[in-house]
TrEMBL record:
Keywords assigned: Chromophore, FAD, Flavoprotein
Requisite cofactors: FAD
Region annotation Disordered: where it falls in the sequence: 160-213
Domain of life according to the entry: Bacteria
Domain Photolyase/cryptochrome alpha/beta, chain residue ranges per copy: 3-132
Protein name: Deoxyribodipyrimidine photo-lyase
Annotated cofactor note: Binds 1 FAD per subunit.
GO molecular function: deoxyribodipyrimidine photo-lyase activity; DNA binding; FAD binding
Site label Electron transfer via tryptophanyl radical, positions: 328, 382, 405
Family stated for the protein in its record: Belongs to the DNA photolyase family.
InterPro entries in alphabetical order: Crypto/Photolyase_FAD-like_sf (IPR036134), Crypto/Photolyase_N_sf (IPR036155), Cryptochr/Photolyase_FAD-bd (IPR005101), Cryptochrome/DNA_photolyase_1 (IPR002081), DNA_photolyase_1_CS_C (IPR018394), DNA_photolyase_N (IPR006050), Rossmann-like_a/b/a_fold (IPR014729)
Positions with a binding annotation for FAD: 251, 263-267, 294, 395-397
Native source species: Subtercola lobariae
Length: 474
């Protein structure tokens, strides 16, 4: 009797370089694939609107990739521990494989599931898949987690080179395993009289993706996202090829210029695991101009997950306790909405916030400017901005989103000097000298229709420095 392998997809919506799927094939038994939509387990943060939109389309793409290989994606919702236990019982799976996650709640869920399966004699294995370096493998000379990026990245570059990406399974291989959805009449062979017949895996019932209501309807605000993005593994690799061919060489020169389409646009692909960091690493020529700078940005993501693993409270709490006494202003609805909708009267900030609203992303340089304006010129708590980005970014990442906001606020590790206040006017002059980016999103800037600035940049900077005196020297 077949002893199927249950492959649990999470933030790894791809078929190539998917260690859990690869090892399931190596195990040699029929494969059952499942995605669990879990927003009810303890500690799990519900997705924002933009990431829900992306997830819907990325799951559609994943189902197509699996179907092309003779596999079927089963969709279930609910508490992950319950769902996995139910599916294991339904399919009589002898093994459950998944790729590791690094948030505290996710790790606790996975540990509990692994223990429950082991108690029933079911093999449960997790795999290294979505970061280049496991967080516990890198430490300072004092045996502590890194808190500063530069020595962290130096340690990464000194470590053994990341492994090469794993191939996607072929349809022929899957058919020999007898996996559900592979076709045939329930018994598959490889055409050889000496090959034993393999019973097909059971095909569990699946929920309807549309019933999860991940897409906006009333109103449908996702028109700009549809114009800007095509989620899915194939689109991710096509974008990577374009970037390597057209933009990698000049990456260091052009990456800070928001009017140029010079960035990799890989962040939402990495967020949902449509592409792996191992694939990015090996697709970029290390000797090519710009490659080192690009990989350093991949390293910044690695650093975020290193911190999330070792300091899980980074998502909600100041990493520097002194900031617990910071005199944040009380936000009013009007002030917050003007920042959110890009009506602050500061053109570069407004351009960034409108780009975010329309496309689900914001150029990284402008993210820093817009975030600095909120926490320093408006003196609003970084968690307010983090929550808005969580809801509106298609690449809202549980590690990077919080770390980057704390970096700008000065409350995190490896923070910029806490007294640094980005001047949007100077930033625009330096990085958008012709006004192309601003004109694309704020065409009314400089006309009578454009609002007056919410605050005076000079005076609000002075107030910020006075407020930051509370944490000076800590």
């Amino acid at each position: 009797m077949a002893s199927p392998t249950l492959v649990w997809f999470r933030d790894d919506l791809r078929v190539a370089d998917h260690p859990a799927l690869h090892n399931a094939v190596e195990r040699g038994e029929p494969i059952v694939c499942v995605y669990v939509f879990d927003e009810v387990s303890d500690g799990i943060r519900p997705l924002g609107g933009a990431t829900r939109w992306w997830l819907h389309h990325s799951l559609e793409a994943l189902a197509g990739e699996l179907d092309a290989r003779g596999l079927t994606l089963t969709l279930r919702s609910g508490r992950a521990a319950d769902v996995i236990a139910e599916l294991q019982a339904e399919t009589s799976a002898g093994a459950v494989y998944w790729n590791r996650r690094y948030g505290l709640a996710e790790r606790e869920i996975d540990t509990g599931i692994k223990a429950e399966l082991a108690a029933q004699g079911v093999e449960a294995r997790s795999f290294h898949a979505n970061v280049l370096f496991e967080p516990w493998t890198l430490q300072t000379g004092q045996g502590q987690p890194y808190r500063v990026f530069t020595p962290f990245w130096r340690a990464c570059l000194s470590a053994p080179a990341p492994r090469k990406p794993l191939p996607a399974p072929s349809r022929e291989t899957v058919q020999r395993l007898g996996s559900a959805g592979a076709g045939g009449d329930g018994a598959l062979t490889n055409g050889s009289d000496t090959q034993p017949t393999r019973a097909r895996a059971p095909h569990p019932t699946t929920e309807n993706l549309d019933d999860w209501h991940l897409l906006p309807t009333h109103p449908d605000w996702a028109g700009g996202l549809r114009e800007a993005w095509v989620p899915g593994e194939k689109a991710a690799h096509a974008q990577l090829q374009r970037f390597v061919k057209n933009d990698l060489t000049d990456y260091l020169d052009d990456r800070d210029l928001p009017a140029r389409d010079a960035t990799s646009r890989m962040s939402p692909r990495l967020r949902f695991g449509e592409i792996s960091p191992f694939q990015l690493w090996h697709a970029t020529e290390h000797s090519a101009p710009g490659a080192a700078g690009f990989l350093r940005e991949v390293g910044w993501r690695e650093f975020a997950y290193h911190l999330l693993y070792h300091f899980p409270s980074i998502t909600t709490e100041n990493m520097r306790p002194a900031f617990n006494a910071f005199p944040w202003a009380k936000p009013t609805d009007e002030v917050l909405q003007r920042w959110q909708r890009g009506h602050t009267g500061i053109p570069l900030v407004d351009a960034g916030m409108r780009e975010l609203w329309q496309t689900g992303v914001m150029h990284n340089r402008i993210r820093m400017v817009a975030a600095s304006f909120l926490v320093k010129n408006l003196l609003l708590d970084w968690r307010i901005g983090e929550a808005w980005f969580w809801d509106t970014l298609v690449d809202a990442d549980p590690a990077s989103n919080s770390m980057n906001w704390q970096w700008v606020a000065g409350s995190g590790v490896d923070a910029a000097p806490y007294f640094r206040v980005f001047n949007p006017a100077l930033q625009a002059k330096k990085f958008d000298p012709e006004g192309e980016y601003i004109n694309a999103y704020v065409p009314e800037a400089g006309t009578p229709e454009y609002p007056e600035p919410m605050v005076d940049l000079g005076e609000s900077r002075k107030r910020a420095l006075e407020a930051y005196d509370v944490v000076r020297g800590t």
